[in-house]
Amino acid sequence: MLAIVIPYFKIKFFEDCLLSLKNQVNKDFVVYIGNDASIDDPGELLEEYSKFIKIIYFRFRENLGGTSLVGQWNRCIDLVGSQEWIMVLGDDDKLGPGCVEEFYYSLDQIEKNDLSVIRFATKVINSRGQIISQKYIHPRYESSKKFLFRKLEGNTRSSLSEYIFKKEIVLQEKFKDFPLAWYSDLLAVMEFSKFEEIFSINEAVVYFRLSGLNITSKNNNLLEKNLASFKFYYYLLNEKRTQFDQHQRELLFHNLEKTFLDNKKNQNFWFDLTKFYLSHFYLKRYLIFLRKMQYSILNK
């Protein structure tokens, strides 16, 4: 019933990931591994861990994650068979031993409430596997919109590995392809939950690794992250703004404009903002924004 999908590329921490699956109290899951044409062959590890967990492995001929990480996620998800729920687990992250057990323990409650997004508590670990954060827990039931603004205000964290999604809605909605998949996972939580409730399992922990090698850790990709941030806020306001109340929309506008002001050299930002404001008759807001931009330039 549960598919654990691993878009594989880096071998450095991969055994830790597999070991955490071997150590699950409940092993009622299938692991689907999609190798993104990596130079690191995981064959020996897979042979060893296949003795303990069911693994279905496929090596793609062409690297896709280098140009579209979301594209790599999607083609790995396409490997999944009849399982109804999927978790997309990073190849350097790991699960606490009770994650699968707690998922099945909560499943009746999840299905009774017709929920499609489940998340676990999390802790951040470093490259040595040492815990470097608090335990992040959540309300048992939480509006995905409230969660979004908690996240944007820096009051919690989020990454793809800690979620389980109903496969049916993932295939319907799809992950949106932003550069580096930055914010793609956060948007997925919104859309896969239909902007409604998330069910939280705080009794088990997913460990997110801040390794120095992953996208979150790096600082040499700030322009791509800036572009993804702009696309994220623009998408929410242009496509989903009716989901938000006036105060929430104001916060999204603020973040969209700040993203532009952080990278004023991107002319596409300017074109998109102008088109958006004028086509939706936000003339007053547009004039206020022009003053903000002028002030930013003068005080650079």
Describe it for me?
- By secondary structure, this protein is an alpha/beta fold.
- The chain folds into two domains: 2-209, Spore Coat Polysaccharide Biosynthesis Protein SpsA, Chain A; 222-298.
- The chain has eleven helices and nine strands.
- Strands 1, 2, 3, 4, 5, 6, 7, 8 and 9 form a nine-stranded mixed sheet that branches.
- Helix 1 links the parallel strand 1 and strand 2.
- Helix 8 packs antiparallel against helix 9 (246-261).
- The protein starts with a strand and ends with a helix.
Q: How are the SSEs placed, and which strands pair?
A:
Blueprint: E1 2-8, H1 14-22, E2 29-35, H2 43-49, E3 54-59, H3 69-77, E4 85-88, E5 94-95, H4 99-112, E6 117-125, E7 141-143, H5 144-152, E8 163-166, H6 167-173, H7 184-192, E9 197-209, H8 222-239, H9 246-261, H10 267-279, H11 283-298
Helix pairs in contact: 8-9
CATH superfamily of the largest domain: Spore Coat Polysaccharide Biosynthesis Protein SpsA, Chain A
Average pLDDT works out at 93
**Domain tally:** 2
How do the helices and strands follow one another from N- to C-terminus?
EHEHEHEEHEEHEHHEHHHH
Report the helical percentage.
40-55%
CATH overall fold name of the largest domain: Spore Coat Polysaccharide Biosynthesis Protein SpsA, Chain A
Shape: globular
CATH class of the largest domain: Alpha Beta
Strand fraction:
15-25%
Q: Oligomeric state of the chains?
A: single chain
Number of strands: 9
Alpha carbon gyration radius: 20 Å
Number of H/I helices: 11
Helix-strand makeup class: alpha/beta
- Based on the coordinates given, report the CATH architecture of the largest domain: Alpha-Beta Complex
Largest sheet: 9 strands, mixed
Question: What distance separates the N and C termini?
Answer: 55 Å
Poorly predicted runs are none
